[in-house]
Write the structure tokens for this entry.
Amino acid sequence: MENIEKLLKEGIKEAKKFFDKCYFLYEAHESIEAKKVAKEEFIFPFSFSNGLYFKAIKNGKKVDIKIGDITKNGVRKSIRELKRMFRLVPRVGKKTRTELAEPLDSDKKRYVIKEGIGFSDNIDIDKMVKTLFSEIGDIARAQGKEHIDYDVWFFSNIEEKLIVDSDFIRSERIPRTFIQVIFKTKRKEKRATTRFRLGNPMGLEMLFENKKNFELSKRLEEGIAKWARYAFELLDAKTLSSNEIEDVDYFILDYSAIGVFIHEALGHNFEADIIKGGSSGIIPASGRMNTRIGSKCVNIYDGPIVENGSLNMHEGFGTEFIDDEGTPVQLKKLAIKGKVNEMILNRETAAYYGLKPNGGAWSEMGDEPICRMTNTYLYPADESKWFMTLKGLLKGVKKGIILMGTKGGQVSKDGMTSSIQIGYLVKNGEIVCPLNPGSFSAISKYALRYVDAFAGKIRIDDAGFCGKGGQTRPVGDGGPEWTRIKNNKYVTLRLQG
Amino acid sequence: MAKTINSIKRVLNKFVDDWELVSTSSSVFSVSSANGKFEIGSEIGVSQTGIRLIKDGVLSYMAVNGLDSVDVVRHGLKLAVKSGVKSDIEAFYSSNYNQMPDVNIKKTSSLMKQLSNIVKKAQKIVSSSSKVSNFSISINLSSTEKTVLTKLMDSSVKRHIDAISFTVYVNSKDFDFKIFTVEPKEEEILYAIETFINSLPKKPVYHKEVGFKGEIDVVFHPVMVDSLIKGLFAYHVYYDNVMVNNSRLHVNDKVAPAFVNISDDALNLSLLSAFPCDDEAVPSRKNMIVDKGIFKSYLSSRAVARKANIKSTGNGMRYPVLSEPWNKAPIRSKIRALVIENGKRELEDIVLRIQNGLIVNTMLGLHTANPLTGDFANPLLSAYIVVDGEIIGYAAPGTWMIKGNIFDILKDTQGFSKERLNLGSSLLPYWHTRIKV
């Protein structure tokens, strides 16, 4: 890293002779990875990837480059290329100028999260992978009578990044571990599948209690058992027609379903580059705030999770200390009591809107840092509507549908959709039967206006990958364990089958 | 490049019994305008390498960036040889290959200037239309070189491809694009943009307005055809899934009307994904998947074929489980170059004959559909409403949803358009079928 820093400092010195402002972003990941797909197993005991990005600005004109050859010659050649490209950019007007806002101050130059069990612990990778795969199988099979197949993907990264700007240098080193298990069950012609995910800025301790016999962590065991059980339950699931769904009084979403719903329905609409481009369904290109997007009991946050009044930096797949432009990540209060309050900014959009950057610039391995979410979650604004348990929330529900789990979603300017892994029909406060997977879609700006109550603690450990602009980024989504939405004309549920 | 490959070969030969290497190196020059904001960006020499190793009968994977760091490879190998799974193959593959011609576009300063000018002019056309509220236009000039090499091969299999892709995206939902393998003519692109913008329907149509119920005619855009076939149908074509009884297909089953022909043809030179071999170095061939409506062939990688005691179809590719980079992806069976035979009628003619129907350009969240069952239920993002052979407007956002099953809609195929779109790794027509709204 020291060599890279030296190389990039020299690059900045060279670039500053021509450009007004510039920065390098260097990212490097070292990982252990293993996969089980159908009957095949794949082990990647070592993978290394790195990327270098350089952005330069002069007279309001921007040029940028992704550099493959991370050597003195490669950097020099890239700066020369940028100067050549700069001449092709036409003169810019007041509205089309690019500036970079100064990142927030920080006393720290380097941010670190230390892993509990890591690469340097001389672990037996073969033993670890074999134990993991067989334990998952044992737990899954114990949940039902029929045959169950499962696919697994897990990786554990050590992620380093270094931002060398014309005005400052900051770096970060964090672990990040992820696991996904897909369960597949079948009974005659009926087939069902569910997916469980867990991801956090942790080392292998997220998966294992210890590094000797690789006993699975409690959290992992519970998740596997739960989602394998749902895969069996889906074999008895029913579907409902659109007319039957119209009669429903309430939808009750678990933390992962509401999390992706928020990420897709609202989160992207808070990203300042989308807002500036006129593609946000809730904030106009002018950046005007205060639009109502949810009921008064809804707050929407992006950033690390708030626990007992402080930020927990060890939870949330998208958690980091500094963004990919070196700005310390702030808890972004996107909506307060249902009203738009804040955007997700990078340094470019912060300068455009005359605001301070808030740590929302993220890149994938040498790509341009763009405005992205980290962990986006619903946080109840009204404690009086926050029940302890699901039972409390279901009380008084004549006909409802519980929607659990997700396999992701997608957003457009006006609408969004989020997939649902399993549903349960509720009648008179009691769960009646499981329902087939489906799609829950909504008109973005009305999506949360009918949220009326919550239950359980806040969870953001359902990990995902957001693919904005072709760049994949780890994200966490979530909210209270349960969120209740009154059925309304702006949401649609369609069940498969 | 040859020098570094030789250094890597030496290191690999020293540490392992056998090895296989797939590498890509790419450079991109891009010009874009988003709502009038003009930007130029570039990528130089970005490379990725995926290596498979066999040592003492154990197979292991390793991923590194380029081939420029012998030290990283050496360090990785020390770890990689310690772990793995029992290998189904004794050795990696080698054969005689018919090299394919490179595609070269001369990357001169005047070409870059010309591409910048095209974006500037396109920006004027798009921004002056009353039908456009926001837009982005981009042109990418990309150079990619792919290399496949195994220990037993005398020389690597390589192909260099330059391509220019042009994309216009308006109103956050409608799009048009073209791929060129020769210098594009400015007038051709600008004419295509004008035609596209003029063809955009003006009026939003709500589902309740037209009252479509039950099954209706639907014409899927080639981009949707690509997603539906590769995302849902192909799952059942891969032998990996046959081996765990998760495929619904049986050879010689009738899966579509007799005019439906679907193939995987990595020898088709009009596609950018054409390459002399797959990622396991097995020579490419044309595989008929559906011939005259009859399902004819599963696709398999060499590893899976070995297990099943069948022949590889040349479809062993680095296939990500989800979103990991290709060099961190395992080798699995995968469609390489999807080709669907075109029909006799132009799209316009197909639409003229539709009484009540939709042209679906994009659905939201199709990646969340269920490949195991083939079921999907998704809202429409960009779609046009057809009544009595005329496009009467576009689907009002957030108000339309369709649901179906890939096997049902394939059986209900009414026809394919005469025109086909080249998506780089697919050559596909518009697909006319029936579906529930």
User: Anything to note?
Assistant: Chain B touches chain A through 84 residues (CB under 8 Å).
